[in-house]
# Entry
Amino acid sequence: MNNKFVQSIVLSVLFLVAFFGYQFYSNIGNIEITADNKGSSSLITDDYFKNKTIQWVIPFKEGGGGDTWARFNAPFFTDHIEGNPVIIVSNIPGGGSIKGANYFADNVKPDGLMLLGTSGTTQMPYLLDDPRVRYDYQDYQPVMAYPTGGVVYCSPSLGIKDASEISKIKDVPLKYASQGPTSLDLVPMFSFDLLEMKVQAVFGFRGRGAGRLAFERGEVLIDYQTSSAYLKNVVPLVESGEAIPLFSFGALNNQGELIRDPSFPDLPHFGEVYAQLGYDLQGIKWDTWFAFMSAGFGGMKLLLTPKETPDEIVKLLQDGIVGMKSDAKYKETKVKALGLYEQVVGSGADKIFELATNVDQEEKQYMKNWLREKFQLNI
Amino acid sequence: MLDLVLQAFQTLFSPENFPFLVMGVLLGLVIGVFPGLGGIAGLSLLLPFIYGMDEVSALATLVGLVAVIPTSATFTSVLMGIPGSSSSQATVLDGFALAKKGQASRALAAAFSSSLFGGLFGALILTFFVQIARPMILLFGSAELFMLAIFGISMVGSLSGKSVIKGVIACGLGLLIGSIGAAPATGEYRMVFGINYLYDGIPLVIVALSIFAFPEISELFRKDTAIAEGAKLDKGGWFVGIKDLLKNKWLALRCSGIGTIVGAIPGMGGSVVDWIAYGHVVQTSSDKSQFGKGDIRGVIAPESANNAKEGGALMPTLLFGIPGSGSMAVFLGGMVLIGIEAGPSMVTKDIDLTYTIIWSLAIANVLGAGLSLLLAGPISQLTRIKFSLLAPFMIMVISFAAFQATKDIADLWVLLIFGMLGIFMKRFGWSRPAFLIGFVLATQAESYLNMSVQFYGFNMFFRPGVIVILILTLLSIYFSRRGGSVDENAELIEKGLKQKIKLAPQILFASVIGIFIIINLWDSIQQSFLGGVFPMAISIVLLPFIALLFYYYLNDRQERPEIFDTELVAEPGTFKSAWYEPLVWVGGLYLLSVILGFIPAIILFFVFFFTFKANTSWLQTALLTFGGVALLMIFSHFLNLELPQGLI
# Structure
């Protein structure tokens, strides 16, 4: 008996010493950057990222839009960021992306070695003050921003040819296949409401793809898809006369104004339709729409690092992204994989970030009230 | 069409492309052996290579990877009773039972040849139907999907065990636990009690691992023999296995058909296909006595279905860009990265790519099943090893797999809690398959019911598709009750009927379940009507069953099959240690992981376990520990997988 104790204790100690020793050895030479010592940023040289690994946290499942965005960009990051860091995409899905973003908030250091890729879905619970949210956008700065758009389309059986005739179907009860009241679907549902359409949301759909399938089966007569899914899967329906495009959610220009979506220059944006039907592009309703549209689509994808990250590190990352954008191979493959929109860095990204993550108290409250009235949601 | 097929065939076998297909297959086989990882881990390993490949090679690699994962997942299902993937849960029932009888190589050979058969069948169906499948897939609306979920639940009939009452409660319990988290109809959170982990519901991977693998590990631990309980390993079992398939070729054909159809319906998910196939074989067999105890048909049915499923699941993936299963989501992501757009164009301008994908699938299945068949014989020797040498590795593997589900330390505790549930269900004779079927189908049943009521109202029952599936369901229920139900404990229960046993432990367990049901009822009353009606209805239905069970208990009706306790009925001396000992070891491991991190905890666990339970020498302990930890570290490094970090 005694013998066994001796054996297990001696072996345990040996193995543990070997393991912790190995860990210690592989960490030697790493500069620890914390919020306190960032003044000593002279330590950061051009080869800061050499032999380092950047963890790109994606709070979504493998295979989804956010994941694809990260995985497509990652190898180009390695090629173009000075020092060629290894990029690891780690997927931490859950709670509609709250879990992964919380993980980032709890573990990140301002050393540029952990980045968070958020999406419109991550912004929504933050803006609506979901109690589970532990991440605060005010603590972060954008390294890169990637806007996208969305298009609302309907079935030809409704008998309208374009958005100018929306008032004809105002009294037709319609159903909309939704993922849930606080998902990104909030923007199209709010849009329908502003246009005074009688659209009832049916929840429980897993992903926009499932919603599109319900449209194709004829279970719903109105739907929206994000730009890339629209181009791939709805444009063929439009061409064969099985779908009528109504409007896009628009895009934001460098001044932060709503313009037509460059992917769909022939399609009016929501603001045009709203104005055409005689509503004012001002007041609380419009401001709320604009705020949540900017958060959901304008800043669809944000790549974040803490505010305290030394400028030298952020610059190394941003220079890498600028380099990546002029890579011939990147240009060639990007449109097919991600769509027409540009990855934005620098002041453009700051503008998008600001619009996407700052919503006035008044607009927040309006949205919360609307959700409460419409869906009996207590938030 | 034929020329396109031949052309795709030629391209794939060209020296530029074929090695990539082989690479994908090899990688898929290696990853598939580790339970719970699926194609997702493989994708992250593959991605860096996929850039710079041409379209065909990249597709071949991806398809090769995805296609063979259900094939090699069979190894752990049969040899260790650990469901290797969510679509090989049913294989465990008879596959592992055969391994315990010393017939592992027979079971593996039958499984792999069935996989091969199913995979090829799926590819064949895909070849002929891909161009006309679009309208057929669109026929399945939410009402039909709801009826299909009910059809799936009807399979419980043949798997509920000797006691119908406990079978129904087990299934209902599965449905209730499956409905924890956000209500599909309203987004309200049910039964979460402010615990963040519960908001997304309990992950299927963890439930499947814990309900099946955990009780088996615990039982073998306590018996302390080899997996093949002293039985001689049969020689030539390999050929017997292949002959088994030939003997049951019509069964394999039917189950492949089921697999393809279920796979092709978007929104059904792959995790139910093996249960439908398993339920089917039980219903259509006249002699059901050996199911759950080692009937080779119970291996052939799910294995031919789960490989055929991948072929079916490719249809919605390619035609609509909507993944038919978890691995298909990864495949779709991979396609986007290569720059191929799934959608209607896959059957018009990109039809050549579609045929490349289909034939990659077929060839990958042949390669994967062929290689696995070669390994089946030698690997079966594992079942002869003394279990105390194997146990730490198995515990390491299931813990590692469970942690990959949501990368939260709570994954480990959930594994332990559900492991306990599994242990007690097995001990007191509650049907674990019934529980799992309920769990898998809970969300589907609820959300499609909500959708179809809103879309169609009462008219949903007049849709032709719904009527057809309803008739199938009624037939399934009729056939499932004919000739008894599958019960792994059938003999022990028969024996127990003649014995008078103590009731306190089983009453305690049933009380816990009863209390859980009442809490569910209470919780559902707090919700809005749409948010709470599903768990409320199930709890209310379950209450009379629970009451009846307690009636039997309290009146000491020893002649009823409801009253059963393995512990008290089994031959004295079967178990060499107390029931809680395995739980203490695993609980200790997890506690240490929380404090020290997973690797230091696993080091301590290995050293102490081998020294005290397996009586290994200094050198043996050191080598085994080193091997286990090195395996873990290499695997997590190359697949970029995380391990629990400690507090220090």
Remarks:
- Chain A has a mean pLDDT of 89.
- Chain A is about 45% helix and 15% strand.
